[in-house]
Amino acid sequence: MNEIQELEAILLRRVADSSEPREVLKSPEIKALYARIPALDPSERKEFGQQINALKQLLEQAVRDKESADEDAVSEPLDVTAPFGINGTLPALLPTDGGSVHPLRQEIAALIEIFGRMGFVAEESREIDDQYHMFETLNFPAGHPARDDYDTFMTIQKDGDGESLIAPAHTSTMQNRILRKYRDRLETGEPIAAIVPDRVFRNEDLDARHEHTFYQVEGVYVAKGVHAGMLIATLQKFLEEYYGKKLEVRVNPFYFPFTEPSFEFALSCPFCEGKDASCKVCSGEGWIELLGCGMIHPNVLRAADIDPNEYTGFAFGCGIDRLVMMKYGIEDVRHFESAKLDFLKQF
Amino acid sequence: MKVSLNQVKQYVDFELPPVDELVARINAQLGGVEEVIDLADKYKDAKIVRVVECEKHPDADRLSVCKVDAGGDELVQVVCGAPNVHADMWAVWLPPESVVPATYSDAEPFVLGARKLRGVMSHGMLAAADELDIGSDHEGIVELTEADVSAGKSLEAGASFAATFGLDDTIIDIENKMFTHRPDLFGQLGVAREIAGILGHKFTSPEWYTAAPEFGAGEGLEFEVFNDAADKAPRFMAVALKNVDVKPSPLWLQCSLVAMGGKPINNIVDATNYVMLLTAQPTHAYDYDKLRGNKLGVRMARDGEKAELLNGKTYEFTSDDIVIVDGEGVVGLAGIMGGATSEVSSETKNIVLEVASFDMYAVRKSAMRHGVFTDALTRFNKGQSPLQNDRILKLLTMSVKDLSHAVEASAVCDLKSGELTTTLRNVEQDTIFMQDSLIATLDTTPHFVNSRLGTELTLAEVETLLKNVEFSVSDEEGNLPEHFEGTKSYPVLLVQPPFWRTDIELPEDIVEEVGRLYGFDKLPRELPQRSSAPATHNAEIAAKQRVRETLARAGGNEVLTYSFVHENVIKKAGQDVAQAFGLSNALSPDLQYYRLSVLPSLLGYVHMNIRAGHDEFLLYEIGKAHHNEVFDDDGLPAEFGRIAGIYANKQEQRDAAYYAAKRAVEYLVGSVLPGAKLSYTRLDKYNAPDFKPFTQLLTPFDPVRTAVIMIDGKLAGVIGELRASVAKAFKLPKQTSGFELFISPFVRTTGSQYVPLSRYPSVQRDVSFRIDTDVNYADVYDALSLEVFTNNEQRITAEPLDIYQADGADSKTITLRITMTPYTKTLESDGVATLLEKLTTSVVNATGAQVV
Questions:
Q1: Contact A230 B454 (CB under 8 A)
Q2: Which residues of A touch B679 (CB under 8 A)?
Q3: What is the pTM of this model?
Q4: Structural domains of chain B in order of their starting residue, each with its CATH number
Q5: Which of B430, B431, B545, B801 is the least buried, fewest Cβ under 10 Å from its Cβ?
């Protein structure tokens, strides 16, 4: 044991015993160590200096821990089984009219309710998943350029395959599990019909229109004889029910690895009905690009052991934050995760 | 992807519809149009003029007074400041009232006038390249020569500049994202073909693209080509040319490049870019004399090998990078960017032209690794067909010869992978269809297509749609693959995609092709039929919804906070960063770790809301916690569903904040799980299971002011106040308490807790017990053993009225109000006394209390 190590033990003991642990940092022994540096051989100075610094850091942490422990130690024990304290009274709940469910969760409940009536079960997604579910089962082979389109958060820790885990960038990460979970229904003639409204993540810089954390509803429908016209009709019916009015919809071709054909889906603006050139929601265009969708790629069905020649299906993914922003005219997407009561109490 | 309609018109043999209609069709059937640029309008007033006279301005040294022939009866006087203006030259004139093209898109475009310059009238201006927005040159005005116009056109005074130089054009910019899988659509030719297809016209590719080219045998330069990475570079073609005259391209070519988003450099580089913009096949030119050893080849880089690329930066390569090399070292990063040392310059006399194919995944990885993204990469990583390399090299060679008087000086080298050689041996060189492994023949049926689109297209209709974009379709009887069993009554389509469609792999790809060319908006919209069986119910989602609605009723506000937190949030909560999943690539430092529990996120928002003027509130969140050592049965990180809440009151209260949080939790449990029995153990007395995620959940809580809560005997979470150090770190008011509960106890429904009403009056008695201060309330309450005395005869309940302790006293008094409800007869006073006696005796025996 060298002298610095010896001193470390002494000073740590002093911190533990002291009622003013921070004073230990000013100990003359430390100053004495620094004072010795100029006298050392230049080749030894660096290492010696580093040892002193390490000692100082260790002591500072010990002081902080001791201070925290001292602070925490003065606490008065409570009878935690009691309904209220000594000489107290039963606390009232906060007024109900100040309470609120988060607007995104209110909307998700509404989506679940409508899709439930249309025969879709609801499932939750995950906050951490593997690349197998996020990419492989969705027909993104390793190295596929489309993987770049998702700015995915990756973990430092690796999974059993030596790959980083990921924060799912779409709730399609649940698609394979859902297809497997409900696969048996197909044999009884019932469709697989599910939605996954949940949280997703993209590694983006924040601004009024971009969040790295947002909500998306994934929909999956598989049965015999499902075709692309049914996808369009189902989404149209859902949106008409959601907005409570007749709407026009249109599809544009798009590319997703996990659907073929793939579409970008737009609806006629339910707010101005295409009549207001200054409409803030549709920018006067009369159309709102809302979601991506398509016929489930045969490789995706195969990955869930469903025969794509016997069954076909469609899938869609729609951002929920945007629905809510349009509904209330919310100007900044960052409000959702801001935990600001001024915002929350309005809903 | 910028598409020039002038280019498209050269390839199609029908009249394009009006731009609005065309854009609508492209949007609906090809890809999202981001912008339509009307070049014809931008250049509508610019005219070609002949400078007839040019004299010095009488009062200004640097100005010249010109008389120009703009095609009218009289010459026009224009004052010009350019040093290169002279009589008998061709120039571009912007007349008065016209907009300077470079300012066309500005908020306030610059409109020229007729005005005096130093006393001499000037009508409009003679334009420099930068003013015309066709280059950056502002040294002098554009001087036109006959060499600047394309074949078949000439310079005429007063002619439209735009019409003469091909700028009477409309550029349609289509989102690249739509073409992620389409190698062919990154060239004008491919988009022209697609436009024909969606408009229902038959397209025929030019012969130079479909027919196998013949190359002449040049000689004069020693040149050796090699391919040492054939599995990553299936084809590598190169040819040397001599006597190259490197100079600026003719203006028509420069204008054309600019229109398609390119940047003119010199005639050789412009030719390589022009060919790429036309065909989507990237190409490259090298200065032959800078290639050491007269060699050019492709191989995998050696780890640590370095080279400077055209952007002036030096890169260090790895053995995963495909590189282009000469006899000594790297001269380019394959598929991405050429090297600086072999760049074609005005000194260049001899060149090498290269057209090759590289593995799309390998080049993408190299680009990501080095952070270099180029137009060539954008095209290569979509999977350009190696089968077009020879056609493109021929086109490029012809273009370079036209532009620079060069001649071939070597044989054309064509090095192919074994696989590709086999393929090419098996096909007719003059066909665009490959019968072997590269592009498979796909068997499909109109039924297969119709069943996925909902359409009723006939065989002939499907055939026409596909043939319009040069697929080969035949409906001869073929051997049906197994999966078409049962569809034998339908004719079979044998579909062969053309060689450039490397994206077509499956019958479903044919479905997309047919659907898109037919028009997705025309698909019949019908809802899927289903049985009336109810959709099943997700108990966990339903439970969470009950919880959030109940807590809102309790006056709480649901928040959603990020699933990731800054290291400081974890540390301030006393948790251990080393146990959290860390993010390796987050853009923001606020997102370093997955949270170990949900409560710390909420703690961070208390101070902010108090400052915003909210004095008392309850924030809650239903979220998830993770721990980097705990995995579920599928080998994925376990996700712990949690309900976290934080109660804060800016005003200090007499009673501990703990009881406010407890009250909210009891309301929650009472509402969602009526009848569930709650019990509490102080954290410091609780023998916590050695389970790290739970240990981390506990760390922010003060052990002597926190309860571990059990619901029906099962661990359900904790309620408590925060440790002083945590409160200080998060700037929490003194009156703060929180909870973090597991979701699982709430995912069930409990039976009815209805109690039949009694016909007999209830009797209430208040009883006070004096006990030692260290006896808990629950010890007293539980000792009443209410459930023992509740039976068919009567029901007994008790509620707390008062807990009193005098200052400095060593005992406290708990007063309970006991309600006795008889079911069979009215309770007489001696019956009441007997019951009370039994109840109090039980408490006295269990706790040593005195009834007072």
A1: yes
A2: 81
A3: 0.86
A4: 2-33+182-207 (no CATH), 44-164 (2.40.50.140), 224-425 (3.50.40.10), 442-522 (3.30.56.10), 539-746 (3.30.930.10), 763-851 (3.30.70.380)
A5: B430
